[in-house]
Inverse folding.
């Protein structure tokens, strides 16, 4: 296994993009990442694309073929991977594996979702849960995370305001992200008084329905400086599976797959939470942001709400979380999210994050979750090769 | 990159399996392959699963999580790959890559599709074509392949009877396959007089709607004899992309992705068509079986129909094709097919194919196609390590 670097990244605007088709979005992201990296299309050995459910959103499967065709890269192999909202994280991971193995030298991993072409995306999103034991019984995603939130409040005294504050911090960061779906600030009051989606979660605890795409270009670490002066190195790539349904878990306030993947990632990299200067977590709902910082080990179990309340997760806090705005405010086009997280950390480590830059960030982390935690992908990236 | 072996294979019965759910099917295949290989569940480092469209067939995405959970293998990483009907072939390929890279030692790659739980599978299958430029204009899969067949007849003089004979040979082989959906013989007359699906193709030129699953267990070649006396070695794994839509191709009687992947596979393995004792090809329609033997190089372009008519593809012919019965008669649960092809070749090379055994088979090949050729996966397997 050889070391791997990221030499190009991109993200389209996330939002309700009525003028952009599925194929247009992913082509835009792919071509921008290629341009950012300094490679030529002919240099690409293979491509991976993360997408949750183009079949249900735009009646298109076989999207890897569609994409390699649409961007003019046939016969380059292109493979779709799917793991619900962690599809992007696994697409990065497959790309890293392809290069680390020596099978490929240059790989593009992209992620895309076009969610706004259906009247109601809820049934499609619910296919990330256990259809037979959860979705068919009427459980939607907000309701599943609402149960996790209510239990966390019961077990640890997490307050409604602390959950709201997670969204507030996200929006504060997104204000400085030109690609964010909601680049404006909100207040705790506004979250608390928004429409209830699934008690205790209101509309402003929930990530939105989004269109968008993102892409990264990966190459062997030893070749990276040929293409760019600012390669970012992959310190660890880890993946774990967990129970798809909530009822099968010992606890619904811990996401075991995150814990397992984070432990692996720290073991592989030899790093600890104290080394992480910026982390992008999977806050599909505010409660999941709080679970993430606990399960990744930034705070003890049950202390996530307090840490958010105290400002520890803010851009100038002890461990800055979601400088991009996170799923809540950057937007959450399902399959694109895991790639956009990596892109944000790359921009932060390059020092190219503009007004949302975390000063001197050297090591960053991403956590991407499928469903309510059935899949977790964790990556650690660093500015220095060694 | 290290050499890789297959140490366990399985296939469920293919057919209209009203008593088997999606998760039951894939669990059955996975557990049988594990048993066949002699490994324990704890030995598994990661899993890949090929599936085209559980989202549209059983309203379940995130199936890799569902599967690792249902067979009790959490937190082992499990990743779904999708490439329409080539999903299984790519799942094998990802498994091979994971072991070849040194990232994993033992990998299970499975494939599954449960197609019979919807009233009409045609719209779901059509998502493998270009939705905007083909499916939305009314093109179904039989109609696309019918155009390819008609053009092949026009360009090369291929006859209606030659197409029919491809199905006849498949059924002759399937008669001896206990897992086949249609284990009985048919005649050319029967094919010609069956209901027309899309002229010139009749019902008996078309692979059926099937439920089923299959799995393989992969490990480093150097470890294979620890687990089994009859490991089968991976000589090559190749993948290529081609135009997803027919109208973008120079010719609709050649599948370029097959040609590219076959050339790569022969280059990697140092073998030629003359070395292949058995080949499983992707005959979703009879015409595609004929295109396959041409594009893989067993006969010259245009001579496939004649070769079939002359008996060259029969079990005792010059180059036996589809000893399993192929997609037409073994059945075609989309995501399972690429894995079932590999399982059949493994049984043939082990000498365990019963009444359908090709005497002395030492080297075999599989060709798995997505859509009308937007993706191709080609594998070459051998009985000897070197």
């Amino acid at each position: 296994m050889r070391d791997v670097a990221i030499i190009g990244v991109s993200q389209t605007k996330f939002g309700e993009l009525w003028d952009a088709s599925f194929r247009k979005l992913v082509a835009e992201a792919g071509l921008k990442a290629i341009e950012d990296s300094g490679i030529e299309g002919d240099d690409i050995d293979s491509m991976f694309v993360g997408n949750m459910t183009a079949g249900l959103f735009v009646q298109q499967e076989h999207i890897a073929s569609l994409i390699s065709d649409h961007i003019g890269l046939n016969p380059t192999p292109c493979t779709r991977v799917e793991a619900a909202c962690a599809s992007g994280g696994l697409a990065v991971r497959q790309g890293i594996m392809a290069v680390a193995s020596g099978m490929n030298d240059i790989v593009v991993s992209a992620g895309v979702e076009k969610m706004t072409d259906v009247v109601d995306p809820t049934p499609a999103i619910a296919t990330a849960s256990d259809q037979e034991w959860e979705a068919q019984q009427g459980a939607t995603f907000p309701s599943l995370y609402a149960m996790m939130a209510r239990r966390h409040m019961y077990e640890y005294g997490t307050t409604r305001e602390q959950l709201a504050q997670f969204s507030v911090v996200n929006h504060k960061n997104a204000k400085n992200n030109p690609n964010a779906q909601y680049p404006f600030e909100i207040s705790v009051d506004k979250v608390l008084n928004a429409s209830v989606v699934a008690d205790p979660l209101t509309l402003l605890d929930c990530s939105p329905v989004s269109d968008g795409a993102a892409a990264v270009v990966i190459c062997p670490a030893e070749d990276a400086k040929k293409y760019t002066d600012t390669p970012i190195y992959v310190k660890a790539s880890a993946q774990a599976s967990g129970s798809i349904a909530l009822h099968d878990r010992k606890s619904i306030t811990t996401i075991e797959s995150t814990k397992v993947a984070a432990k692996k990632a720290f073991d592989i990299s030899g790093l600890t939470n104290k080394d992480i200067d910026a982390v992008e977590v999977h806050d599909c709902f505010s409660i999941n942001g709080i679970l993430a910082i606990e399960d990744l080990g930034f705070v003890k179990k049950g202390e996530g709400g307090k840490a958010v309340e105290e400002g520890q997760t803010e851009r100038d806090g002890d461990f800055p979380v979601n400088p991009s705005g996170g799923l809540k405010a950057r937007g959450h086009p399902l399959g694109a999210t895991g790639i956009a997280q990596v892109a944000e950390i790359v921009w932060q480590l390059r020092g190219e994050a503009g007004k949302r830059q975390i000063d001197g960030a050297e090591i960053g982390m991403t956590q991407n979750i499928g469903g309510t935690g059935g899949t977790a992908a964790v990556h650690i990236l660093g500015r220095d090769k060694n």
Q: What stands out?
A: Chain B touches chain A through 65 residues (CB under 8 Å).
